[in-house]
Amino acid sequence: MATIAPSNKKVLVVDDMNVCRQQVKSFLGNSLVTVEAKNAVEAIEVAKAEKPCLIILDYIIPKGSGLEVIKALRSDWELKYTPIVVMSGSRDEVVRNISEPLEEKGLVFLAKPFSREELLKSLKKAFSVARRREIEDSKGASKPTQDELIAKVLRLEQIVLKQQKQINFLLSKFPQSAN
Question: Beta partners for 84?
Answer without folding.
Answer: 55, 107
